[in-house]
Amino acid sequence: MSEDVALRTQETTEPVPHEPATQPIKGRTDWAGEVRGIFWLILAVLGFHTFIAKPFYIPSESMLPGLLVGDQLVVSKFPYGWSFVSPTFHLLPFIKGRLLGHLPERGDVVIVTPPGTETDYIKRLIGLPGDRLEVRDGTVILNGVPVKRGPLHYVDIPNYGGVQLPAPERATCDLGDDALRTAPDGKTVCHVPVITETLPNGRHYDTVELGPSIGDNYKEVTIPAGHVFLMGDNRDRSADSRFSLAEQGLGGPVPWEYLGGRAEFITFSKTGLGSWNPLTWGQSFRGGRAGTSLHAERSQ
User: Fold this and answer.
1) Cα–Cα–Cα angle for 265, 170, 287, nearest 5°?
2) Transmembrane segments in this chain: where (predicted)?
């Protein structure tokens, strides 16, 4: 009996051989799921750009002195409602009217897509439906009353090197050889002749005055219902409602369906300088422009 117990005890205490560890099986990439995720992400971004806001880059000097070439803006899409040009890609045919539409206010800086094009312009709204608008010797006349213009004065815009630089930086002082100057601190600036313009609602902003130009006179028109009249702040270098579509302008008063949104503020500004060399990255951005509001101030 005791031998049998000892035998069973010996059998139960013998080591049990270890089974080889099971290796986890690597799953295959769910490419369909990845594509779906990317699709929904792109759709969300496009939806945000269509209905809420989108970035906008300033490619020309037509809105000097307030906007410089290289400025990056935020454009809100909802202030005026939505139209067929609201989507990021202008693929829709003309559709009359706006969803939850609201007319802009005089002095707003707006994004507009000229009829027959897919290019976005940025201009300032000067005339509303029903206004009689004329430009005479550079002065805007609204409903028979000249828009108030202040005295000619100058502002210095940092130019970061001047006309010797490649585009787009060169365009920030493409106003004549005498405009490029050296400031007391030794930096190069663009010395810009400016006149402050004040609209009937009290909103005011600076416009560039370079002397006589072909846009200084525009025959009086009555702005039709559902249309607006737009002009650039750099009055002598802006293709806007004063010029035909063939002249790269807006072709007169623009149907409000072509307004894509309102410019809100500057996020950052690129100089056109710098390269892949990290030592030059400090030259790539203009300081002091981030957060600048693009809403025209109102006189007290």
Assistant:
1) 40
2) 38-58
